[in-house]
Amino acid sequence: MKCKKCGERASIKMPQHNMALCGDHFLAWVPEYTQRTIEKYRMFTREEKILVAVSGGKDSLALWDVLHRLGYQADGIYINLGIIDPQNDLAYSAKSKAFCSQFADQNGLQLHIVDIKEKYGETIAEINQRSAHGRQKPCAICGLVKRHIMNQIAHDKGYDVLATGHNLDDEAAALFGNTLNWTVEMLRHQSPLLPAVSGFVRKAKPLCRFYERETAAYALMRGISYVYEECPYAAGARSIQYKKLLNQLEKRSPGTKMNFYVHFLKAQKELFGEEQTAIPREEHCPVCGQPTLSGQACAFCRMTGAVKA
Amino acid sequence: MKCKKCGERASIKMPQHNMALCGDHFLAWVPEYTQRTIEKYRMFTREEKILVAVSGGKDSLALWDVLHRLGYQADGIYINLGIIDPQNDLAYSAKSKAFCSQFADQNGLQLHIVDIKEKYGETIAEINQRSAHGRQKPCAICGLVKRHIMNQIAHDKGYDVLATGHNLDDEAAALFGNTLNWTVEMLRHQSPLLPAVSGFVRKAKPLCRFYERETAAYALMRGISYVYEECPYAAGARSIQYKKLLNQLEKRSPGTKMNFYVHFLKAQKELFGEEQTAIPREEHCPVCGQPTLSGQACAFCRMTGAVKA
Fold this sequence. Notes:
The structure is a homodimer of 309-residue chains.
Chain A: E1 12-14, E2 19-21, H1 23-40, E3 49-53, H2 58-69, E4 73-80, H3 92-107, E5 111-115, H4 116-120, H5 124-130, H6 139-156, E6 161-163, H7 168-181, H8 184-189, E7 193-194, E8 202-204, H9 212-222, H10 238-252, H11 256-272, E9 283-284, E10 291-292, H12 299-304
Parallel strand pairs in A: 3-4, 3-6, 4-5, 6-8
Antiparallel strand pairs in A: 1-2, 7-8, 9-10
Helix pairs in contact in A: 2-9, 7-10, 7-11
């Protein structure tokens, strides 16, 4: 298999694009294709301030790298959730944070760090232990905490948009879950771009058209150091099962994952109209000021105990 | 596990209904639940004439049996496609036909038989060999032939509705395929009931809420003789791959298949409105008189060469 651009030996084959590329041309193509995605979904401009949510993994650091190379004003935010993997004796969050800090230092970029143990007195595992969901996986709580803090920082520090490193495998797995249950509201609101609405910052997923293997290849070829290990809480998650199933289909019919996601986005316009928005919330939490449905203290403030503070 | 109705030892467990039943209560429950499905989707009444499409397999013979027991006026139609499985030296269609005839005789029911080799001069394999699709599987052609003939017979002999034995696994697999491609028109028109429209007879799927293992269990427990073998052309079909994937999900989360299908039907109403219809065709084929999109000879007449006759 030869590189489509130069005819040299290809390093990566991308059947969904009917294309193979050598290392150099792949490294050039990833930012180009990201730029096309940013423009296609009108995500943001070079005049706007972007906050990149970085976890220390391949996707989010690749995203930060690409946006920086493309000349965007992109700062980072890392949320230290205090996750430790006892099985591997791994300070997962500490290690993740170190990769984010290293990337920021090497590239002269600004990184905001929020440590939830310092700020709210508990790690994710401790919140999970205390809360009503104590026996469940902490993933739902973790998502809530991250969404809340990211939105707060973006709002307080005047960012125009929050960019996350979701790749096509992530989006396809989420879509698969929403489709298995046919939750119409979730199908209506799953989008590469959610415009700002009533106190929620605009959210964009510039890597949403890359397969996971491509973001991994990009990070590796660029020499970006990132945390290889999955979050210890992710083991057995439904999203991982859905990714495996979609990969089975992809193996048999290359392009299936891409078609599933891209055809959905077209169908979504037909079904719901052009403009995708976040679910509007008219009320605001009296504790933190963020939007809520009820006008009571928001789920985050109830959970962290900030209501009592 | 005990029977929910009588407390005796259960023969079949149906986690999606949170229920297990003994053999006797299962045999009573299948017609009851079919009747509820018929009423829920307003499929047909006992005053109407029903044509049951029978293939000799478990689903269609179970359907005929159930409708007959429920007191419906249900005749059968068997289409002899002339399928032979050379690998197993099996006259597949001949064997299937024998099971249908046997069932009709045992129950004193009327069975229409259409032999396509006799009527059109070619078997499915021969049509496939001759047509432009010669190198492909004949499944698309077979579907076209069956739909055409069933509609013709239903129309000519004055039946009100055509009933097919599609079970939930069939419907969920078709839905899965339509969802992977997000073909909105297919999603709009996949329904347990398609009302009559412009020359197409009404179509109903009264077994659409039974898992395949339940229709198989019913046929076995009732002592209905049916062809066990899959159609030799079915091997490797996408629908079979989708059924396997859905069964993987079902194994991990019992009820997934049922939720996928039933939640879809609810979402369909929300997305497309209450009334489901077949895609209307305003024109009619000048050869056979059946509805077409173009007003030219229909795909069936072009394929069988009836145009020249």
